[in-house]
Amino acid sequence: IVTLIDISQMKLAEEQLKESEALYRTLFEATGTANAIARADSIVEKMNDRLVEMSGYSKEEVEGKLSWRTFVDESELERLMEYNRKRMIDPTSVPASYEANLKDKNGNVVPCLIHVGVIPNTEKFIISLIDISENKEAENELLKSAELYKTIFEATGAANMIVGPNRIIKQVNSKLEEVSGYMRDDLIGRNWSEFAPETEMDNLLEFSRTRKTDPSRIPAFYETKFVNRKGDVRNAIVNLTSIPLSEDYIVSLFDVTDMKLAEEELKKSEIMYRNLFESTGMANVIYDLEANIVLVNSRMENLSGYSSKELEGRKWIDFIPQPELNLMLEYNRKRMLQPESVPNQYETRMITKEGTPKNIIITVNPLPDSTNILASVVDISERRKIVDTLTRQKKELSDFVHLMGHDIRNCLSSIEGYSDLLQENEQEKEFVLKKINNQTEYLRKLLNRSIELADAGQTVEKSEKVNLNKLVDTIGAITIPQNIKLNHDPLVAVKADKEKLSQIFKNLFENAVIHGKPSQISVTSKLLENEIALCIENDGLQIEAKTVEEAFESTFTTKEKESIHGLTIVKKLVDAHGWKIRLSDIKEKACFEILIPKEDVTEIF
Question: What is the value of pTM for the model shown?
């Protein structure tokens, strides 16, 4: 008896099962991710080649022997074990995808994006890993809202499709439906090039041709664009992996449009804040918690004299002198602990590249969402000079008023006494009137001298271009007798108050004539590094350095010598121009040097 049983359907089912098994085995190996299957007791049952490459372990060392916990960094182990415990009870109680630090065989920490999915009808689960060491920041932005890796193909978190050699789509997952806007049936059977914009077609077709001849020349990930159902052009990062023993390949697509938009917005925001940083009108500097200068604007370059390259990377404490530095360090320490305990604006000093200290007002504020500090600096050096000058002048005038009041009272008392004497004794009339005239003459000189000193102390406005050649000739003709010769070099033209500059030369010439008794007065000039030096000298009697020092340091007084009084006015007028005057080393000739900054020199003859 021969019994025949038709097993065609069974054979067909077996073939389909084999094809299905081969397909999913290929997916397991060829998704581009590191995959492992773990049992309920945490032992790794199977791992793919990508995991072998990432971990440094061989399959023989791991499969059926090691727990998945072997690959977890100690800092992450407690969290992942808790996830695993909850997953066994209720898979929905823990996130499907998350980031964690794993470690390879050598103990190196590898930041990874992990997806764990329970395999239906088993107590096993599948683990998918992506090494995000190099592009962690970009992928974090890209994958924030995505649910990744439910299963190898369906739930990787990427929009996946299987494409045949003729570019026909054979299979898609739900993520691709989501990002494209098309249903699964609308995609399968269509050519993937239908979803590429014209601008991308040439590159994609070239990639497709090259992949067939030399796959190694194609990058694992590349950026392109696709068109969704609405017609919107979207940005995407694509990974293509060939399926072994097949002409098909897996395309994994990540939509990064939102990330691109965020990058553009970030660039716009950065440009806006950089413009604000540059154009506030103040010198700005950003430094970190270690006092390292991170960024400066052009005004800080101008203020300090350093370029941005010279400043950035250095510590701000290098530019603050003592004793201000100790105070600022204390402020900085307290600001880290209790910001409201220190002022955010205060006056201090900084040292420029030339070594010059500048008075500044600094405003310090922490940058939002950052540990860095913004310091805005305003140069108040000129204002400080004016304030110091006004303070000094106020004291001088106060002292002067008291002294002058005392002298005037004495003179008036003398005049009153002489008037009484004149009434009592007519015979002494001539003597008494002479005394009264002497007192009134003294008062007149006292008032004239006080007015000169007050005028000399004023800040001048350098609004005129003054030719020193003409000025010296004019003042010399008025003040120097014909028996004294005046010589001068070709001199410069300067920005100055002409009337007050004339007073300077008049007083210096008169001082030389009256007290030096010279036969010759000379005015010479020489060019220094940053200034012009004018030398007024004569061949007469030497003036004592002590006398000049007294005159130059003199405050208002009613008892000055005439020579000191004239030099005191000269010193105040030179200071009012922002210049300097000094007595040079005395050898054969006395020489007063006036130092004029180059920026005040308008012409050299």
Answer: 0.36
